[in-house]
Amino acid sequence: MRLSTVILPIHRWAEGQKIWRRAEDLGFHAAYTYDHLSWRSFRDGPWFGAIPTLTSAATSTQSMRLGTLVTSPNFRHPVTLAKDLITLDDVSDGRVTLGIGAGGSGFDAMTLRRSDEEPWTPRERADHFDEFVPLLDQLLREPSVTHEGRFYAAHEARNIPGCVQRPRLPFAVAATGPRGMGLAARYGQAWVTTGDPKLFETGTPEQSVQAIRGQLTRLEAACEAAGRDVAELDKVLLTGFTPDRPLDSFDAFVDFAGTHFALGFTEIVLHWPVPDSDFAANEKVFERIATEGLTELSR
Description:
Blueprint: E1 2-6, H1 13-25, E2 30-33, H2 50-60, E3 65-71, H3 78-91, E4 96-100, H4 107-110, H5 122-141, E5 144-148, E6 153-158, E7 171-174, H6 178-187, E8 190-193, H7 205-225, E9 234-238, H8 250-263, E10 267-271, H9 283-297
Parallel strand pairs: 1-2, 1-10, 2-3, 3-4, 4-7, 7-8, 8-9, 9-10
Antiparallel strand pairs: 5-6
Helix pairs in contact: 1-2, 2-3, 3-5, 5-6, 6-7, 8-9
């Protein structure tokens, strides 16, 4: 069982570095950040770049893993992303996990597009993701890559010396649909879910558990189709998007975590508290969860 956190990139580094160091001091397995151009209610406030933030965090921490939850093709190209990731993996001495997903229809989908362009449909996002992940996998494994695909091209793209982690840094693939599940089964070292978004506002915790159980069943089927044992993949639950409220109290977290670890999850990710936002939480409760939560579960 692992407990991790996601730190939104909303702090100037003079303050932000204190949070990343505190996350390591509290014993979190990993600290992630979102890779967006801006995001939801934070759109009109500070929002910094994910890769520079993680690079700075790598120089401010010692052993905690670092990563994105998640990067998407919405505004990334595999060639330039691979170069950034190899650099980040080197600076962190092999502590990086790439959370990666197909992306959504929000700000990331429109910021780089002309006013007369429509955002990609769900099918188009899946089409891009289908090409993006295998090409990125190849770029991180091989010193020179040439590729001409439907959406992406690379001409003798050089990635020397490659990742510190071999054969490449791990992918945590966020997916709930069949095509994304297939990519997780073929290329992922972990699978990520936020639960069923349709249940967030009107569903119950029991309905959420049932929906997630169904996702796990579909992941197992995808792994079987790919000739892979589903047990090889870590299962990561990013909290904050289900009807549950695990940060309301220590006992609420223990109940929530116990239920989801029993489903087969190996890592639960909590949002670092952000006052006056959807991620507001009592900091003392949060820190107690970080330091005592897993110990309580193991009794």
